[in-house]
Design brief:
Rossmann fold, Alpha-Beta Plaits, binds adenosine-5'-triphosphate, 35% helix, translocase, globular, alpha/beta, 2 domains, ABC_transporter-like_ATP-bd
């Protein structure tokens, strides 16, 4: 659906200075119907990259195709036409403050001269979709952040886009509202098959709704793949940082001091569960059979999109050989096992 090849963007500098290379030879392939996340720290180039996907930002070099059409080759009118197939939502919603919920959503339809009765039918359908029936005549100032973003989403869907670009769409929202907006995006993706591209600096957003993820750092894609794979085996230091922040692992050295003597050793392990094994008592079964005692130091059970996912940090105490065998046995039962200390 979106094919980006060797895309670079240099912002011009003052006078004879070189300017800033915000995107550096980006290659990205986004499939139709998937939810694709781009994560990076502030200044990494996320917004610039997202905005090239509807040419709000024109790249300095490279190619960008959406649904097989090369955007950089289009004239103004053709580009306008293509843009109507690419919806966008924003961190600060960008609503018209002097227009009601109804009029904000109707605006993009009126721009392309849609007949009044069709505008009415479409706006009513969208208001129902985003659950704002009770607020149709209110102005943005009378709405909560989550409600404003629902208006933003409805407006972005008005012209039946194939792609929805989300620019930090939940960053201004509290955790509960974030979750409800992410659920709405997921529903829209499933119901209409719209390809969603989102940028964020929060790993939990990626974990909650994305199929695949790219990590951007210094204008380059440093890692990309299925969310599950990247989450379980992050290869780049920046990705590892994001996951650490998400899991609040902190400093492990204090946990290592539990190590004791007299033939009993301690080991700190990180264990990931993925899929149905998350709900099975594998840990208890394997470790008690091996005569190993364990203490849970930290743990979370959540979901990675639709897949159950758990992570535990445990300290195992037992004979050296038993510890070694247990690590292998846990891996054989389908758990991802990593020795931390
Ligand atoms: N219009 C501009 N002119 C000059 N430099 C710019 C412009 N817009 C962005 N930049 C610079 O390009 C780099 C990438 O910016 P961008 O906004 O894409 O990053 P980001 O990852 O979205 O950051 P944030 O999360 O803080 O929004 C930054 O160094 C930024 O200062």
């Amino acid at each position: 659906m979106i094919e980006i090849r060797q895309l670079s963007k240099r912002y011009p500098g003052k006078g004879k200075t070189e300017g800033l290379l915000a995107l550096d030879r980006i290659d990205l392939h986004i499939e139709a119907g998937e939810i694709y996340g781009i994560i990076g720290h502030s200044g990494a180039g996320k917004s610039t990259l997202l905005r090239t996907m509807n040419l709000l930002e024109r790249p300095t070099e490279g190619s960008i195709q959406v649904a097989g059409i090369e955007l950089t080759q289009l004239n103004k009118k053709e580009l306008q036409q293509q843009r109507s197939k690419i919806g966008m939502i924003f961190q600060h919603f960008n609503l018209l403050s002097s227009a009601t919920v109804y009029d904000n959503i109707a605006f993009p339809l009126q721009l392309v001269n849609t007949p009044k009765h069709k505008v009415d039918a479409k706006v009513n359908e969208l208001i129902r979709l985003v659950g704002l029936e009770a607020h149709r005549d209110k102005y943005p100032a009378q709405l909560s952040g989550g409600q404003k973003q629902r208006v933003g989403i409805a407006r972005a869907l008005a012209n039946d886009p194939k792609v929805l670009l989300c620019d930090e769409a939940t960053s201004a929202l509290d955790p509960q509202t974030t979750q409800s907006i992410l659920s709405l995006l997921l529903q829209i993706n499933k119901q209409f098959g719209i390809t969603i591209v989102l940028i964020t600096h929060e790993m939990h957003v990626i974990q909650t709704i994305c199929d695949r993820v790219a990590v951007i750092h210094g204008g380059r894609i440093v890692e990309q793949g299925k969310v599950v794979d990247v989450f379980l085996k992050p290869s780049h230091a920046v990705t590892q940082e994001f996951i650490m922040e998400e899991n609040h692992l902190g400093d492990l050295s204090s946990w290592v001091s539990f190590k004791n003597g007299q033939g009993v050793h301690s080991r700190i392990m990180k264990i990931h569960y993925l899929g149905e094994v998350t709900y099975e008592p594998i840990l208890h079964r394997v470790l008690s059979a091996a005569g190993i005692e364990f203490a849970i130091l930290q743990g979370t059970i959540s979901r990675m999109k639709d897949v159950p996912y758990g992570q535990l940090i445990i300290r195992m105490d037992g004979k050296e050989e038993a510890l070694r065998h247990a690590a292998v046995a846990l891996a054989e039962q389908g758990l991802e096992v990593e020795v931390l200390a």
